[in-house]
Amino acid sequence: MKKWDEIISYETFRYIDHTALHEFEGKPYTAMTSFAIDDAIATAVSNGASPPAFRLWKHPSTIVLGIPDGRLPFLDDGVAYLQEQGYRVIIRNSGGLAVALDEDVLNLSLVLPDVQHVSIHDAYEAMYHFVQHMFQDLTGEIEAYEIVGSYCPGDYDLSINGKKFAGISQRRIKEAAATQIYLDVRGNSQQRARHIQEFYRLSKRDESTKFVYPEVVPEVMGSLSDLLDHPLTVDDVKGRVYRALENLSEEIIVQEFSEQEKATFEKRYEQMLKRNERIDQR
Question: Mean pLDDT by 10-residue block, N- to C-terminus, for the chain (282 residues)?
Fold first, then answer.
């Protein structure tokens, strides 16, 4: 197993801050757009047209469903409920299940090349330890293991004292991997969880399904601000990301999107639209 800092240690990193966008290449800046952007970056990183990249992004009031969620027997009822609560709903193209995004949730995408030499497990470990590194002055208590009762549960749920504040997914394209994490920075984490809990209740009802969907327990979720007893904002955490990246690389660059990246984005965006045809985008 490679050490996490060896996996992330590159001379040059590309830094992309998309937390304040309203549109991208003439498209509305939604979570669908973000997943298409990450695919375009991963393709460029795989081809050697871009250095390894760290992208920061967020979206207001969005529930991002996983591919298995799209097979829920009464999905339309659950989606309608979420939309009534003011959420946009999309199905992503990477692993995992439903997660809640809003202005107080920061997403990070770490895009690395040559991942034929890096296991999926090691890529998760790298993101986990990077987050530990970001907050090392505030806590040494961040752990990675499945938090039963959380939404989008998995082996790399990040938690403090048994309460989850982050989840990680991964998508591989050719020779690159985009490891994506959401960080619940502040806000009402349990209210977010209650909305996802009700989504599953309405979408599954009492039907038996081959896939086991989570029984969400809102009390096992928490924000970094609450769990650390330290007020944080998204801007605070963005600063921590940048400083941690400075510690691991010699140069951080801002690189405009190339014409090839834009072309890849257009193709991937169309694929995201097709994936989401079933959902009424109100």
Answer: 76 96 96 97 97 97 96 96 97 89 98 91 94 97 98 97 96 94 97 98 94 96 97 98 93 96 98 89 59
Strand order in the sheet with 143-144: 143-144, 158-160, 163-173, 176-184, 105-112, 53-57, 12-18, 251-253
Burial call 127-147: b when 16+ CB within 10 Å, e when fewer: bbbbbbbbbeebeeebebeeb
Do the domain assignments include residue 33?
A: yes
Task: Indicate the Cα dihedral angle 71, 76, 79, 84, nearest 10°.
Answer: -170
Give a yes or no: residue 206 inside a domain: yes
The set of catalytic residues is 152
Q: In this structure, are strands 12-18 and 53-57 parallel, antiparallel, or unpaired?
A: parallel
* Structural domain contains residue 255: yes
- Tell me which residue range forms the domain holding 241: 4-275
Under 8 Å between Cβ of 22 and 198: no
Inside any domain, residue 110: yes
Domain count along the chain: 1
Question: What pLDDT score does 143 carry?
Answer: 98
